[in-house]
Amino acid sequence: MADARHIPVILIDIAEFSKLETPEKRAILTRLDGLIVSTLKPLVGFADPQRVFSWHGTGDGYFLYTSIYPTPLVMRFALDLEQALIKQNMTHTEYLMRLRVGLTLGDVEDVGKQQLSDAFTEATRIIDHERVRELLNETRPMVLATSKLFWDDWNNHADKATPGLAVSPLLPWSRVELEVKHGVRLIAHIQREDVSSGQTGVDLTIWLQALLHRTGSLEIRGIGSGAGRQKDAGRYPIEQLYTTLRSSGGGNQDLKELLHGSFRLL
């Protein structure tokens, strides 16, 4: 395929994929396939996402590109993928996915069985930069970054505010200058570089739900009936295990004594 126009290119890369065992790789790739298709489906209507988007596997992720859909739809897809990923990781704790996603614009050309694109190279350089890599953590399973060309096209696109494609104007983005190979410097925009920056108006509901899922329960293990056997871990909400501290007696006087440290525990 050769296209004279700049078209949106999406690079989805699975962090630390090479460190996983084969069963884990298989499970994560299967989940990621389904996650991409289910996230694209509402945006492309009755069309088959795998037909309208060209897919190119990279071993630990994908390049997706299309000459049909504009940058606002691609941005909407990336943000929807982030939300879907957080929800999936909350229910599939055995194989957590962490993704780096890069959005660029460029030409894609087929040369035999190979695909050539400067946009591929630019997306790879952006999401492989250590500044992007270090942003991934257990409570932030996806980092989204765009090239300057993609950002400018999306930011000025007439369809940016179209219902179904519009995104919150309050999403925090950082404009950064990344030094890559041979002294080349790339301008990029990174989404939510600092979640704790104190910016107002940002919906952190999904992020807080993921944090609660990780920290709101305790695993209690028992001893099995047979030698060398152990009961499966039970996961219990901390609120169910919490025992309220009480003092003897009752009334406000006990509260005053508690605050002054002169009380007798039951």
Summarize the structure in words.
The chain is an alpha+beta fold and 266 residues long. 35% of the residues lie in helices and 22% in strands. It is built from nine helices and eleven strands. The strands form three sheets. A seven-stranded mixed β-sheet has the order 2-3-1-4-7-9-8, sandwiched between helices. Helix 1 crosses helix 3 (71-91) and helix 3 packs parallel to helix 7 (205-215).
Compact description:
By secondary structure, the protein is α+β, with helices and mostly antiparallel strands.
Topology of helices and strands:
Blueprint: E1 7-14, H1 22-44, H2 49-52, E2 54-57, E3 61-65, H3 71-91, E4 99-106, E5 109-111, E6 114-116, H4 118-127, H5 130-133, E7 142-147, H6 148-155, E8 173-179, E9 185-191, H7 205-215, E10 217-220, E11 234-237, H8 238-241, H9 252-259
Parallel strand pairs: 4-7
Antiparallel strand pairs: 1-3, 1-4, 2-3, 5-6, 7-9, 8-9, 10-11
